From TrEMBL:
<dbReference type="GO" id="GO:0003995">
    <property type="term" value="F:acyl-CoA dehydrogenase activity"/>
</dbReference>
<keyword id="KW-0560">Oxidoreductase</keyword>
<protein>
    <submittedName>
        <fullName>Pigment protein</fullName>
    </submittedName>
</protein>
<dbReference type="InterPro" id="IPR009100">
    <property type="entry name" value="AcylCoA_DH/oxidase_NM_dom_sf"/>
</dbReference>
<dbReference type="InterPro" id="IPR013107">
    <property type="entry name" value="Acyl-CoA_DH_C"/>
</dbReference>
<dbReference type="GO" id="GO:0050660">
    <property type="term" value="F:flavin adenine dinucleotide binding"/>
</dbReference>
<dbReference type="Pfam" id="PF02771">
    <property type="entry name" value="Acyl-CoA_dh_N"/>
</dbReference>
<dbReference type="InterPro" id="IPR046373">
    <property type="entry name" value="Acyl-CoA_Oxase/DH_mid-dom_sf"/>
</dbReference>
<dbReference type="InterPro" id="IPR037069">
    <property type="entry name" value="AcylCoA_DH/ox_N_sf"/>
</dbReference>
<dbReference type="InterPro" id="IPR036250">
    <property type="entry name" value="AcylCo_DH-like_C"/>
</dbReference>
<dbReference type="Pfam" id="PF08028">
    <property type="entry name" value="Acyl-CoA_dh_2"/>
</dbReference>
<feature type="domain" description="Acyl-CoA dehydrogenase/oxidase N-terminal">
    <location>
        <begin position="17"/>
        <end position="84"/>
    </location>
</feature>
<dbReference type="InterPro" id="IPR013786">
    <property type="entry name" value="AcylCoA_DH/ox_N"/>
</dbReference>
<feature type="domain" description="Acyl-CoA dehydrogenase C-terminal">
    <location>
        <begin position="234"/>
        <end position="365"/>
    </location>
</feature>
């Protein structure tokens, strides 16, 4: 499976994903046919190791595929961000843990959440006993496995760990009743006294880009990139896709629409033209910003290097700024649509709601992510333990 083929197959699905977007909202999850289509396209397996049948693709391919899914359906893209990135994270796990998950079904879907304060684990012989309740577990309705972060009682360097659990060991609570991204199924998950063998856990700090058990067996360039510094790139890729869909759909309607007050074509008004131009420029700039992070992070990994503090902070802040540009584009389109945008039958209504929710993700918070980069640029220490 070649990455370019995965991207091409995903782009070919945009029309059908767009047709199903309203149904995804109504169902509040992806329908089985959408899951089957995207599994057949290979989206979630772009970052899976080749030894399990995955692509081991470069970062660019992930951005291209996820933004294409976002052009079709924001909720679906949000779910597949999780399925793609958690396959990447699993590549860092101990070898036996990877075999536990991928031997039976190499095409299984994985989701999870990084909120260690929501879980507690205690160490016992051979592993850990995990309990907790985690919110906002996007894509969990279609996940076969889940990764949860938790604190381990007793302190020490491994106090913060990730745990991999099969679907049978979790309870999904129907809590995701939201303004937008309705079909992402970002529900709460409860785990109660579940044993997790040590080989299905990983110290969270190892995902910053240093040595991991998985790198001993997965030696590709992709797996040398720091998970936490670049995670926002993939969230922003989905956000970009939502904005690109908004621009395409708005232009499709606005070129035909007549102003109620004058009967003239809306597209002839300079106020419309300048808003469309700004939205188009914002979307294009967001795409280039994300791809530039992919190229720089990939080049560092290809040299078997690690990004320094300024580069880590930059990767995260540039991803957040790309998301900010995409959100601004949708705001411009929403304003340009005036009263026509507010009808549920208008797909711009869903796009606006999806973007409103997506922009609240921590990776999209410009004040937090921008200030971290600015702090380093001004000569201060990084000050962010997750980087």
């Amino acid at each position: 499976m070649r990455a370019s083929e995965v991207v091409a197959r995903t782009e070919a699905l945009i029309p059908v994903l767009r047709e199903r977007a309203a149904m995804v909202d109504e169902l509040r999850r992806m329908p089985p046919e959408t899951v089957a289509d995207l599994k057949a396209a290979g989206v979630a397996r772009l970052y899976q190791p080749m030894r399990f049948g995955g692509c081991e693709a470069d970062m660019r391919s992930g951005v291209l595929a996820l933004s294409a899914v976002g052009r079709g359906c924001g909720s679906t893209a949000w779910s597949f961000v999780q399925h793609l990135t958690h396959n990447f994270m699993l590549s860092q796990w101990p070898d036996q843990g990877q075999h536990d998950i991928w031997d039976d079904d190499p095409a299984c879907l994985v989701s999870g959440i990084f909120i260690p304060s929501c879980g507690r684990a205690r160490s016992i012989d051979g592993g850990y006993v995990l309990s907790g309740r985690w919110p906002l577990v996007s894509g969990v309705s279609t996940a076969d496995w889940c990764l949860f972060a938790a604190f381990v009682d007793g302190g020490g360097v491994d106090t913060h760990r990730y745990f991999a659990l099969p679907r049978a060991d979790i309870e999904i609570l129907d809590t995701w009743h939201s303004l937008g991204l309705k079909g992402s199924a970002s529900n709460d998950v409860v785990v109660t006294d579940v044993f997790v063998p040590a080989h299905r856990t990983l110290v969270i700090g190892q995902l910053k880009g240093g040595p991991t058990p998985g790198k001993a067996v997965n030696k590709g360039v992709l797996y040398r990139t720091p998970s936490y510094a670049i995670f926002g790139v993939y969230i922003s890729a989905a956000v970009l896709g939502i904005a690109e869909a908004g621009l395409e759909l708005y232009l499709e309607g606005a070129r035909r629409r007549l102003a109620l007050s004058s009967g003239q074509k809306v597209g002839g008004y300079p106020t419309q033209q300048v808003k469309i131009a700004e939205a188009s420029a914002a979307v294009a700039a967001a795409r280039q910003l994300l791809l530039s992070v992919c190229d720089e992070a990939g080049a560092i990994a290809a040299r078997d290097g690690l990004p320094d503090d300024e580069q880590r902070a930059k990767f995260r802040s540039h991803a957040a700024f790309a998301g900010r540009l995409a959100a601004r584009a949708v705001e411009q389109l929403w304003d340009a649509g005036a009263s026509s945008s507010v009808y549920e039958a208008n797909p711009m209504s869903r796009i606006y709601r999806d973007m409103s929710v997506a922009a609240r993700h921590f990776t999209q918070n410009w004040d937090v992510n921008g200030s971290t980069h600015g702090r380093v640029l001004m000569g201060y220490e990084l000050g962010d333990p997750t980087l």
